Amino acid sequence: MFFFHFTRGHAHLTIQYMTPLLAFNLTSDMFDILVSLVLAISLIFDLSGSGKLKRYFTRMVLFNIAMTICDIPDWLPQGTFDPAFQRMVLLVGTTFYYVFFFLLMGSFFFYECEYVSSVVVIPKRVRRTMSLFTFLCCVLVIVTAPFGLSVYITADNHFERGALYPIMFTLYIIQDLLCFYIPLKSYAHMRTKELVFIFVYALIPIVALVFQALFRGYALENIATTLALLLAYINVQTELSFKNQQEQAEKLTHVLVESIEAKDQYTKGHSARVAKYTQEIAYRMGYSTQQLRDIYLIALLHDVGKMGIPDAIINKNGRLTDAEMRVIRKHPLIGATILRQFPNFVDGARYHHERYDGKGYPEGLAGHKIPECARIIAVADSYDAMTSNRSYRAIMPQQDVRREIIRGMGTQFDPRIADIMVDIIDEDKDYQNRQQMDEKSDLYI
Question: 22 vs 14, 25, 74, 94, 218, CA distance in Å?
Fold first, then answer.
């Protein structure tokens, strides 16, 4: 390999064979620079509009590039520059290499916080703790490195670990382990794919650090963080594509629901409110992010069968006759027929009028033979019916609604689900969950 040596203003071309260690580190750094630059360019075009997620990911990429730049002086052989100057360059590069590593892992923590923000709120004190911890780690490196306490450069310009390096290494591991707090906090509400991504991303730097501690000289942190960033980028791209498709499906679903509710002057907003209550109950039951999105759409379409019911019955003032009730009780089967091409949505429409004691319709299913989504919708549907204006009565007082839900436990409703609904009612001190309070119907979408 060719190297230029600079001595007192004169350049000398010499040839030096690379050792396997130097070859590995040089190849690793070239790979890091190439991938990081590709990711940086892709950020401009591919992640536009993704808000805070993009901002934190951009920081991670920039810190990774900075780490690689700080590692460049390690490529230079002994005597490339004046020994004292080269030693100073190596020390500065090594010091800020570790500073940027701490900053990168801190940024990943906040990236995780934003990634799971739709299902879990990470307390501010946890965020502040990570910020403070990252800051103190950076200060420790900057303060100790010049005195050779954490890292130092030998007379022949080789990197060595100082007396405090074990402490710094321990801080690396602690900071990385803190990143596992997010998936552990939100695992119940995340898809398996999302959990695997976060765990693998946090695990890669730990594995690299352990190997680097065992095999001195090999720069594994850079390539580990670069591979982790590449994994994160692929995951974000997949999530954005999936989210865009889902948003389109949701828009079409809302259009369909609006056309249904245009038939009934008394139930405008009913489907959206039922979907909101259903989703809140499911959240408290531990549903994952994707399950919450799915059940929201299932509940939104639970009354799609009313499209096949005559307007005269739908909008009749007063109570329905027995004959009219027989007609309106057909809407679950009509809904199931309409949604037959979408199997995941059928159960909500078909079974939301079944009762836990088996006295419901259309099939008279009982207990857990009723699909869980339908059991949840049944509670949410009844709650909204009691807290909304109807042609035959006004909104019921909150305590009356609570009593009706309790009275229906084990007969009309699944006791576990009804109990969750009672908790929601008890938390709603100002009776906000009423017909006029339906403008925010997509809490977890």
Answer: 17, 5, 9, 16, 8
